[in-house]
Amino acid sequence: MELTETHLKRIRDSLPVERGNVSMEALNFLNAVLYVMENGCKWRRLPERFGNWHTIYTRMNRWSKNGVWDRIFAKLQQEGVLSVELKVVSLDSTSVKVHPDGTGAEKKTVRKPSANPGEAGTPRFIWLPRMMLAPSASVSRLVSTETGPKAAS
Fold it and tell me: Per-residue DSSP letters for 37-48?
C-alpha cells in the first residue's frame, strides 16, 4: 500500500507542522511506515528507496508519542483511503506454558530441619578418586594369567 499526492492532500491537515531542517518528504515518510506495517519487517530491513531507516524510525516514534498517528489513521479511514483491521490474540496457560518462576509463586527461603539430625548430618561416604603409581598385585596377576596361557598356545 502506498499513498499518493492526492491522498496526502486529503490528510494534510492531520499532519504536524514540520520545523527545522526536514530532509524527508511527508509522503515518502508515510509510505515507509506503511511498508513496515504491512510487511512486518524490521526497521533496519527497510528498502533504501525510503531513505535512512533510523530517521524514519525516530520520526515515527515521535509522532506516536504525540498522538499524530491516531489523527492520521482516523482521517485515512474517514476518507476511505485506508482500512485498518485490528486483530486480537488471546494467550492463556492452555496454549503457552509458563516457567514456575513466572507464575508469581513464593520462593522457598526457609530450610526445614530433618526429623532425625543424625541421619541428615555429614555424609557417611565420600568417593575420592586416587591415582595409582603402579598397578596393584591383584591387577598384575589378573593380567598375567590372561596373557600367559594365550601366549603359550
Answer: HHH---GGGS-G
